[in-house]
Amino acid sequence: MNDAVKPPVLAVTSGEPSGIGPELCARLPERKWPAHLVVVGDVELIEERLERAGRALVVRPWQPGMKPEAGVFDVLHCPLACPALSGKPSPKNAAYVLAILDRALEGCARSVFDGMVTAPVHKGVICDAGVPFSGHTEYLAAKTQSQQVVMMLVGGGMRVALATTHLPLADVPKALTKDRLTRTLEILHHDLVASFGLPKPRILVAGFNPHAGEGGHIGREEIDIIIPVLERLRAKGMNLAGPLPADTLFTPHSLREADAVLAMYHDQGLPVLKHASFGSGVNVTLGLPIIRTSVDHGTAFDLAGSGKADPGSLFAAVELAIDMVKAKRRQA
After folding, report:
1. Closest alpha carbon to 100 in 24, 173, 16, 161
2. What is the DSSP letter of 219?
3. How far apart are CA 57 and CA 141, in angstroms?
4. Cα separation of 98 and 54, whole Å?
C-alpha cells in the first residue's frame, strides 16, 4: 500500500501505571480509528484494565510487522517492576515508566511508528526514585538531542505555543532572549507548515508586559527583544502580528485570522486555552524529529480505578497525531 494512504501506526504510551493512563488506553476501542494503535505497557496491566472497562478483546503482545486484527488489542509489552495499585504509585515502577517512553521513541526513530501519543506520568514519583525528571517534553528533547523544543497546546479552536515553559515567573525575563525567541518562532512556523499543513501560517505574538509595554512605560522587553526579532523574521517572509497586549489578544475578533498564538510564558496563554478546552485539549511538542502529542492533564490518582476518568483528551491527542501524520506525508 502507498505510504500516503496506508493507516498511520501510532504508539500510545500508557503512562504512570497507578494513574488513569492505563484505563484511558483501555477505552480506545470505543472508537474506530483510521490508524493502527499500539499501546506500550505491561500486557497483564492493560488486560486487567480492559476487563474493568468491560472490553472482551484478545490482548496480543505486539511485535513490529504485525497487522491489526478485528477483536485484538495490541500491546508492546514492557514488564512492570512491581504490581501497580490504582491511586498508590510506587517509585519502584519509575524505570518502567521511562522504559515505555524509550520503546515508543525507539520505534519512532526506526519508522516502526509514525508518531507517539503519551498518557500522563507523574514527575514526583520518578524523581523520588532518584531519577531527575522535569517532564515528557524535556525528556524527549534530551533523548532525541533536540537543541530546543516548543510546547504548544491545541484546543478550543486555538493553538497556543509558549516561548518559555515551566519556569518561576521571576526567571522568565532573563530566559526570554532574542536567540530563544527567534528559534521558538522558527520552530513554530516550520511545524505549522510541515505537520499541520498550513502553507503560510499567521502567528499572533503576545507582548511580555501589560499592554505590551505601552511604548516602554511598562517595561522594555517589547522594545529590546520582541520587536527586533519580529522585524527580522518578517523580513524572511513570516506572517507575524505583534507584540500584542495579551489581555485583548484572545478575543474572538483577534483570533479569527490567526493560525497560532505565541505566549511569552506559561500562565499568560494556557489559562485561556484550558478554560476553553480542558478535558479535550492536546499538548504537542514541536521541534522534535518525531510527532508527539499528549493529554492536557495529569495522572489523577484520586480517580484511578474509579472508571470515571474522561478519555476525551487522549482521544483528541490520537486524532491530532493522525492528522499530523497525514499532513506530514502530504508535505513529503
Report:
1. 16
2. B
3. 35
4. 29
Q: DSSP character for 88?
A: B
- DSSP, collapsed to helix, strand or coil, labels residue 129 as coil
Q: Where are the beta strands (DSSP E) in 157-301?
A: 158-162, 202-206, 239-244, 260-263, 282-286, 292-295
In the numeric block, which cell numbers belong to residue 108?
519512532
What's the CA dihedral at 156, 159, 163, 164 to 10 degrees?
40
Q: Determine contact, residues 72/57, Cβ cutoff 8 Å.
A: yes
| pLDDT tens by residue, 9-18 | 999 999 999 9
Q: Is 45:17 a contact under the CB 8 Å cutoff? A: yes
Residue 120 C-alpha cell reads as 500522563
Count Cβ neighbours within 10 Å for each residue of 195-205 and write b for 16 or more, e otherwise.
bbebeebebbb
Place of cell 495522572: 299
- Closest listed residue to residue 60, CA positions, set 304, 46, 52: 46
pLDDT tens-digit map of 123-177: 999 999 999 998 898 899 999 999 999 999 999 999 999 999 888 999 999 999 9
> Measured between alpha carbons, how far is 173 from 225 in angstroms, rounded to an integer?
10
Distance CA 241, CA 293 (A): 27
Instruction: Report H helices in 224-295.
Output: 227-234, 246-249, 252-255, 266-277
What is the C-alpha separation between 132 and 123, in angstroms, rounded?
Answer: 9
- The CA distance from 20 to 225, in Å, is 42
- What is the residue-wise DSSP string for 105-118? HHHHHTTSSSEEEE
